[in-house]
Amino acid sequence: MSVKIVNLKVNGVDKAFMARPETTLLLALREQLGLMGAKRGCAQGACGSCTVLLDGAPVVSCLVPAATVDGGDVATVEGLADGRRLSDVQQAFIDGFATQCGFCTPGMIMSAEALLARNPDPTADEVNEAISGNVCRCTGYAPIVSAILDAAQRRRERAEGADQEATL
């Protein structure tokens, strides 16, 4: 059985770990790097609980062989906060009561972060499409969509404020 050393940038920090051919990115993140945010739900790529960003794109990490992402850049929910300050999406989920049991929350947040990175002013339909690969069994999705739209609004307002300060 061959083992490969995989080098990744995870949440902005260079990491290296050993991976067997059957080691998924999810298992490497959780068991070797101690990042427990991404959850193992269905292990078939259908629930989205294990969603992380790989080179900026959302992926279900339970289906990604770790050995295939050598040199990649991975972002997990643990890397979104700036110290004790949560990201806009994380804070909007809390403020909007967009979590119930919390199991799907990290994957939902990562899908939302990817959406807002490419589209800072999404419609509700675009949010629904972006999170369509993430299953929530508790909230009914309305609070999640509202939280993502709220986070987008917060980011736009902060950007507008920064633009106004820059012109002063």
Automatic annotation (TrEMBL):
Write down the SUPFAM superfamilies for this protein, in alphabetical order: 2Fe-2S ferredoxin-like, CO dehydrogenase ISP C-domain like
Entry keywords, A to Z? 2Fe-2S, Iron, Iron-sulfur, Metal-binding, Oxidoreductase
Q: Which InterPro entries match?
A: 2Fe-2S-bd, 2Fe-2S-bd_dom_sf, 2Fe-2S_ferredoxin-like_sf, 2Fe-2S_ferredoxin-type, 2Fe2S_fd_BS, Beta-grasp_dom_sf, Diverse_Oxidoreductases
TM region positions: none
The organism encoding this protein is Asanoa siamensis
Q: Where is the 2Fe-2S ferredoxin-type domain?
A: 4-80
Look up the domain of life of the source.
Bacteria
A Pfam family matched in the record? Fer2_2
Protein name as annotated:
Ferredoxin
Q: Which Gene3D superfamilies match?
A: 3.10.20.30, [2Fe-2S]-binding domain
Cross-referenced PANTHER family: OXIDOREDUCTASE WITH IRON-SULFUR SUBUNIT, XANTHINE DEHYDROGENASE IRON-SULFUR-BINDING SUBUNIT XDHC-RELATED
